[in-house]
Design goal:
This protein is an alpha+beta fold. Helices cover 63% and strands 11% of the residues. It has a domain of 146 residues: Butyryl-CoA Dehydrogenase, subunit A, domain 3, CATH 1.20.140.150. The longest helix has 38 residues. The N and C termini lie far apart (59 Å). The relative contact order is 0.17. The C terminus is likely disordered. This is Claudin.
């Protein structure tokens, strides 16, 4: 019962991780630059994401431009696109597989099949968390290095946006969920290997009958 509750808790974490992973992939605020200038009326907030760049004016106007050319993008943005999409796909597969392998569901067949499915789903979550953590770390490193570079003007410097923090949190949720699923199945299999089921040997009825016959001869 405790293992089933722990798996359900890990499944909830994985759901939050999947939704956060998809949101972080699509949000345009991976890095933000607020240029207030001399007049607050003409303040501009520039946001750059993996798929589009958006500009928000203090007057209420909002405009976005899609990044159509892939080869013109920096290498870290291209890598972030690929790994975040892979993270979303793997986490979605993990949700489907663990739904079958969880103990609180009636899908997946016998216990061994459910344990294998649960372990496979945990591996998908771990890989999805790694694929989501790598681009966010790399993207944050590029933002910090550009911000600390003295040769870059202040108007071209950016800070990490909300999508980066969402990616970090989602990757953490997916990693925790994957570790919980894998460890729960591994402990069960390890216990079966260390303590195999005892085999009870019962004497055959033929031996009992023979023993009884020999005793009668001596009476």
């Amino acid at each position: 019962m405790a293992s089933a509750s722990l798996q359900f808790f890990a499944f909830i974490l994985a759901l939050f991780g999947v939704f956060g992973d998809i949101a972080a992939t699509l949000l345009p605020n991976w890095k933000v630059n607020a240029d207030i200038g001399s007049n607050i009326i003409t303040a501009i907030t520039q946001m750059q994401g993996l798929w589009m760049d958006c500009t928000w004016y203090s007057t209420g106007m909002f405009s976005c431009t899609l990044k159509y050319s892939i080869l013109s993008l920096p290498i870290y943005i291209q890598a972030a696109r690929t790994t975040m999409v892979l993270s979303c796909i793997l986490s979605a597969f993990g949700i489907c597989i663990t739904t079958v392998g969880m103990k609180c569901t009636r899908l997946g067949g016998d216990t061994d099949s459910k344990n294998n499915a649960c372990f496979a789903g945990g591996i998908c979550f771990v890989l999805a968390g790694i694929f989501g953590l790598v681009p966010t770390c790399w993207y944050t490193r590029e933002i910090i290095s550009n911000f600390l570079d003295q040769t870059i003007p202040e108007s071209s410097k950016h800070e990490p946006g909300g999508a980066v923090y969402t990616g970090f949190i989602s990757a953490g949720f997916l990693l925790i969920a994957g570790v919980i699923f894998c460890s729960s199945c591994f402990k069960r299999q390890q216990g079966a290997w260390i303590y195999p089921p005892k085999q009870h040997h019962f004497p055959s009825t033929e031996q009992e009958s023979n023993a009884g016959y020999s005793l009668k001869d001596y009476v």
